[in-house]
Amino acid sequence: VITASQKQQLEAVRYSSRYALGLFYEAGTRIDVPWSAQYVTGNPCVRFISIDNKKRNIESPEIGPSVVVHTTVAFGHDHLDSDPAEVQQLILSHLESLVPSLPKPASVKCQKWRYSQVTKAVPDCPGHMILHTQPLLICGGDGFTHSNFDGCIDSAMSLAEAVKSHL
């Protein structure tokens, strides 16, 4: 269905890897920090911390708060094939040193994010790639632009125009 050149271009796309950690608390738990989200510099493990309900401006007596943690690219790369339980403990340890006032969560979920952000997109690409014309098969996404909201919008607009031109 695709040409050798297209396959080579798609296989050359590179992504960073990270872990995301979610800490979930019982309703009524207070997380006393003066911020809703922050980027962390100087820590080899943690890059971003968010008090998710506070960041989204959602306060509810029925739903407990949650904390989301993203790791650094280097940590994700170094621990890509590590035991998930060990990775979770490492992240929790770093998080505790950064925010020692966090209460003990009711539950924790650690998620490997193998394809986090594009580090090398398809070169010279308009935000999509037409793989086949009959039937029309097009692919798009951040692998054809860059990994942020604007990249997603650019790819979506490019995909819409490509489909429109084939109608």
UniProtKB/TrEMBL annotation:
Gene3D superfamilies: 3.90.660.10. It comes from the Eukaryota. GO terms for cellular component: extracellular region. One of its GO terms (molecular function) is oxidoreductase activity, acting on NAD(P)H. This is RNLS Renalase. It comes from Nothoprocta pentlandii. The gene is Rnls.
